[in-house]
């Protein structure tokens, strides 16, 4: 890994074409985080390793769903989701299976140590689809907390399992779950083969959105979760595309003279903030998300890059205008920028929690690049990670978890950490390196 260093403006455009293990400015130079990521397999699923637990764990039993035997075990997926959250302690249910209409023996489940119980069943309908039902019980109070019924095709069983997991998580914790969301990330398969992939939040069900012989970097989701914006080098220069995830339709939206990079959708999804060097400097512009003429927001002689919108419309970005990279905030229409980070001499890659209260970022301290969280009201700072080469943090839509890229045993890996730093997960593959994670918003129709 190469240590970041300053570059002058004349070197900037050339630097974006020099791909190294971590760019010389950790994307400070037009936010072009390189994608030389080691070999991998196109559809290798991510393996999850969990460490740490929440401040309180809820004992819960998820019984095998009765009925059809399916390729996707609904109860097993629910168990895995709840376990990954670090908020639940899963009880051994043995081979027990209870139909959805069964009356639980609460005394028995209480004796096993369960405070909550999930039962359900799966039945095939005449149409070929599946009817999936579940019930959630409070074992101590001996009462039903929730129940639901879903109709799903075979290829939607995982998604439906995630939806049920989200309902259980929310009913018990009071927080909306993110199991039914998705993550996007970049894999380098060979020296001249890159893929932008989209998977479930647990790393399963990976699908390739784009293959290219040239690097793909900086993916970011639209607020409706239907589009990805990213930077591609397929034109032998950095160009910003907007990509419809379901159809694969792509639009080249920023291909101006010089470098085009670091896209970020506005809260309404109609506007993109981008970083352009069309005027000779790395500056922040906005433009229609469908393409069009950009409007310049920053006017400095520094490198201004990595814009990201907050829910209130303000833009947070990285700039070296104070001599070293720090994070600033400005109105979405441009104007005076206010410095936000002050501890440490190297703070980059801002991401703002959905409620606008917390800033996640990467900070270099004692030679280590780690993820921190800053309470924007109080200025209180919390170190979230203990690894040494972390980058590209992205908040989950509930603001309770961040995903980021790191290195594990010399390979690129994705990791998640709870916003209080207690629960950490590593998502790896045996096939190679993965980088540039971005967490999707909630699926349509499920936003709070």
TrEMBL record:
Keywords: Cell cycle, Cell division, Periplasm, Signal. The keyword Amino-acid biosynthesis does not apply. It is found in: Periplasm. Residues 1-44 form the signal peptide. Residues 46-145 form the TolB N-terminal domain. It comes from the Bacteria. Part of the Tol-Pal system, which plays a role in outer membrane invagination during cell division and is important for maintaining outer membrane integrity. The Tol-Pal system is composed of five core proteins: the inner membrane proteins TolA, TolQ and TolR, the periplasmic protein TolB and the outer membrane protein Pal. They form a network linking the inner and outer membranes and the peptidoglycan layer. Belongs to the TolB family. This is Tol-Pal system protein TolB. It comes from Piscinibacterium candidicorallinum.
């Amino acid at each position: 890994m190469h240590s970041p260093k300053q570059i002058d403006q004349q070197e900037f455009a050339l630097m974006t074409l020099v791909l190294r293990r971590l760019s010389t400015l950790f994307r400070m130079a037009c936010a072009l985080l390189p994608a030389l990521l080691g070999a991998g397999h196109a559809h290798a699923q991510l393996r999850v390793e969990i460490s740490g637990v929440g401040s309180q764990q809820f004992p819960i039993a998820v019984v095998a769903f009765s009925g059809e035997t399916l390729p996707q075990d609904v109860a097993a997926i629910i168990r895995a989701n709840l376990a990954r959250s670090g908020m639940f302690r899963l009880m051994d249910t043995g081979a027990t299976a209870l139909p959805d209409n069964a009356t639980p023996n609460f005394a028995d489940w209480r004796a096993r140590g369960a405070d909550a119980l999930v039962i359900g069943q799966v039945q095939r309908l005449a149409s070929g689809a599946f009817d999936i039902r579940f019930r959630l019980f409070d074992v101590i109070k001996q009462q039903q907390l929730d129940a639901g019924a879903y109709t799903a095709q075979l290829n939607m069983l995982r998604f439906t399992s995630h939806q049920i997991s989200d309902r259980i998580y929310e009913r018990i914790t009071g927080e909306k779950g993110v199991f039914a969301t998705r993550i996007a990330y970049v894999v380098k398969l060979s020296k001249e083969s890159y893929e932008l992939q989209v998977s479930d939040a647990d790393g399963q069900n990976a699908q390739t959105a784009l293959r290219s012989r040239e690097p793909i970097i900086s993916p970011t989701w639209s607020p409706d979760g239907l589009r990805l914006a990213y930077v591609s080098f397929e034109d032998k220069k950095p160009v910003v595309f907007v990509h419809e995830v379901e159809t694969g339709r792509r639009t080249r939206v920023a291909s101006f003279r010089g470098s085009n990079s670091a896209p970020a959708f506005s809260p309404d999804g109609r506007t993109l903030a981008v970083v352009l060097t069309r005027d000779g400097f790395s500056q922040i512009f906005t433009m229609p998300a469908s393409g069009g003429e950009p409007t310049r927001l920053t006017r400095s002689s520094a490198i201004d890059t990595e814009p990201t919108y907050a829910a209130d419309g303000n833009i947070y970005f990285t700039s070296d205008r104070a001599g070293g990279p720090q994070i600033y905030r400005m109105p979405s229409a441009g104007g005076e920028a206010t410095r936000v980070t002050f501890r440490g001499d190297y703070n980059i890659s801002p991401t703002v929690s959905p409620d606008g209260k917390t800033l996640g970022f990467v900070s270099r301290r004692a030679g280590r690049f780690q993820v921190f969280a800053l309470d924007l009201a109080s200025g209180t700072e919390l170190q979230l990670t203990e690894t040494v080469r972390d980058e590209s943090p992205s908040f989950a839509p509930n603001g309770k978890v961040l995903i980021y890229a790191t290195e594990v045993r010399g390979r690129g890996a994705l990791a998640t950490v709870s916003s209080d730093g207690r629960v950490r997960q590593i998502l790896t593959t045996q096939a190679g390196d993965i980088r540039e994670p971005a967490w999707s918003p909630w699926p349509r129709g499920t936003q709070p």
